[in-house]
Amino acid sequence: MVANSNSFAQSVSYKSDNSPSFDQCCSSKEKDRLSIHFFPNWFLFEPNFSNPFEAKIGPHFVINESNLQLDIGAAKDLIHYRHNREQHFGFGAEFFTWTMFQSQSNFKFPVITVDYFFGIYFSHLKKFEEFDWMNRLRLSHISAHLVDGSYDVSKKAWNNNLEPFVYSREFAELSSAIVWNEQKFYLNINYLFHVIPNVKSKFSIGFGSELLLLSLKKFDANIFCGFDLKLLKRYSEDYESDKSISAGIHFGEWNSSGLRISYQYYSGGHFHGELSNMKINRSSIGAYLIF
Questions:
Q1: Over the chain, what HEC string results?
Q2: Cut 0.70: pTM above it
Q3: Which CATH class, in words, describes the domain spanning 8-290?
């Protein structure tokens, strides 16, 4: 969002509704003394909601399919260091899973596959008069697993001729974003420094945006949309694109805690590792708790 260079709170509005801003809680003398803040309630780099590989909490229901996806996890800034009023540095951690269930009768939801993500990140915020410049470096691990919903007990065989295999990704990802007038535009560069199974290129690039379209202040709600695009080489020499689009309504202060209802469209390589050799094209409706 647009930041006033005299206000830390305005530049970093990603804070809990219950937490006073830096300017509100501190006198001018105290502000000069304070440079490190532990367990802050806002992000220096807000996670990119449209990116499937960002921590979320909530279910989304796949349209015209019997599948349900459940995301469980969170990212948290642990330390903020205020170098000066215009520049801030942070450190955080993130842990989450995304799980595919199959909806069956009698309220049964066997798990088809689940992916685990954990890592740390370093973040940076530089405030300018007209915009904010944000950066984040992630060091992360992903692993994937087939579960009981992928196995046919009566046949003693895995469904669809799938069999479990080792899927592991360790990567570094650098993201850089410009936030101007509540509109965020970002670029991602990803490098896999350890990968099983092997891929044709360990580098990938992506970009996207998160846009606030309309604020409904009377209802404390915000209409938003966003997209995320990745260009990469998986198991062939040809570049592939993974596209994700989201749009919906956020109840609560924008870029703060609340409830987010969204429509999501995804087209590209399957984001579940055990199914990564497949292509999918799907739409879903989700509900997420934002902290």
A1: CCCCCCCHHHHCCCECCCCCCHHHHCCHHHHHHCCEEECCCECCCCCCCCCCCCCCCEEEEECCCCEEEEEEEEEEEEEEEECCCCEEEEEEEEEEEEEEEECECCCECCEEEEEEEEEEEEEEEEECCCCEEEEEEEEEEEEEEECHHHEECCCCEEHHHCCCCCCEEEEEEEEEEEEECCEEEEEEEEEEEEEECCCCCCEEEEEEEEEEEEEEHHHCEEEEEEEEEEEECCCCCCCEEEEEEEEEEEECCCCCCEEEEEEEEEEEECCCHHHCCCEEEEEEEEEEEEC
A2: yes
A3: mainly beta
